[in-house]
Amino acid sequence: MIRVVLPHHLRTLTGAGKEVSLEVAAPVTQRTVIDALEARYPLLRGMIRDRTTQQRRALIRFFACGQDLSHEAPDAPLPAAVVNGEEAYLIVGAMAGG
């Protein structure tokens, strides 16, 4: 099971708690995790990544194991600690403005 931590504004759309668990088939990548998340919670489609280009939304960031994965290739494997459920995959709403 992959553990995913969602920011508050996305939790509101899912009706889920802060953390959700997902079954994701190997290979576990950012793309497969987000695909599984959107399949389970259809209201998230277009909120995390653009519906057409599949690119990450500008104010959304991805973290795992203390690393910013936001600019990693979507098909790069996630760290082993995320794959075996020891660590969560974090989706974070970035702050903007000043």
**SSE pattern, N- to C-terminal:** EHEHEEHE
Strand content: 15-25%
Strand order of the largest sheet: 2-1-5-3-4
Give the strand tally.
5
Query: Which architecture would the CATH scheme give at its second level?
Result: Roll
On the 0 to 100 scale, the average pLDDT is 92
> Helicity range of the residues?
10-25%
Distance between the termini: 38 Å
CATH level-four homologous superfamily name: Beta-grasp domain
Based on Cα principal axes, name the global outline. globular
Q: Could you characterize the architecture of this molecule?
A:
- The structure is a single chain.
- Helix content is 22%, strand content 20%.
- It has one domain: Beta-grasp domain (Ubiquitin-like (UB roll)).
- The protein has a five-stranded mixed sheet with strand order 2-1-5-3-4, with helices on one face.
- The protein contains three helices and five strands, in the order E-H-E-H-E-E-H-E.
- The termini are far apart.
- The longest helix has 11 residues, at 30-40.
- The protein is α+β, with helices and mostly antiparallel strands.
Short description:
With 98 residues, the chain is of the alpha+beta class.
